[in-house]
Automatic annotation (TrEMBL):
GO terms for molecular function: hydrolase activity. Keywords: Hydrolase, Membrane, Transmembrane, Transmembrane helix. It comes from the Bacteria. The keyword Membrane applies. Residues 72-161 form the Serine aminopeptidase S33 domain. The chain crosses the membrane at residues 12-37. PANTHER family: ALPHA/BETA-HYDROLASE (PTHR43358), ALPHA_BETA HYDROLASE FOLD-1 DOMAIN-CONTAINING PROTEIN (PTHR43358:SF4). This is Alpha/beta hydrolase. The keyword Hydrolase applies. The lineage of its organism: Bacteria, Pseudomonadati, Spirochaetota, Spirochaetia, Leptospirales. It comes from Leptospira koniambonensis. InterPro entries: AB_hydrolase_fold, DNA-binding_regulatory, Hydrolase_4.
Amino acid sequence: MIHMNKLIRTIKIFAICVFVLICFFIGSHVLVLITLAPVRANIGNLPPGYKEIEFRSDSGEDIRGWFYNSSSKKGTIILLHGIRANRLAMLARSNFLIKYGYSILLIDFQSHGESSGELITIGIKESQDVRSAIRYIQEKQGKSKIGIIGSSLGGASALLADISEEIDFMIVESVFSTIDSAIRNRVASKIAKPIALLTPIAYYILKYEINISESGLNPIDHIKKVKCPIFVISGRDDLYTFESEAEEMYQRAQTPKELWLVSNAGHVDLHAFSRVEYENKVLSFIERHMN
């Protein structure tokens, strides 16, 4: 009888564990699908001085955005937003840089804002959008100097695009080092740290949905190939991209390179968080390497 009770108890525990795993699998699948779903937005009125643009991307989608053409001809800076955002997230940076004579290209990544697309791909198709944006500027501006500022997904996509030989500088903000750490850190932050141990399940769901290899979504494997000046920026209190990840990204990068870990900042808009210091540091970096 005692052995029978132990057996029943063991079966119950096993059943509970299986149930929890099934719930996590279903929950992970739902969360992945929500994360990858397109984020449509009516961007609104065109700001003064900008013009609406559209180009066909190598991703197969029609990319929409705004272009500001400065009369100073100092060069063009492409601004790349984070996941589930759009060009408006980078507009404050744009207006700051315009004051110093730079032309600006703001785009909505595929499956974001007003651009077409049916699935966010965490950098796979978005990196093709980056390459196409550079080509668009080259066709419109000739031999104009080009720089990139990318936040989170924007920075990751710039690194994954492997376009450093075609630009004069790159600034990457709050960029995950590997897709594994990106998933694990977000699960631990939003749900619970123990559940983050099940990250491989979420990763394989993601892999199935967007058809990628793990190595294809690791910015840290691409940053070492960047040949232009690069500035790595991240928040010291970022729970999605740890300080140690930013430091390792910086260590892997070639010179010239810079690192700024923003005190007390999480995974936030770093320009809005520390506007004066951000503008001073970023402008200094751009002026040194763009001119």
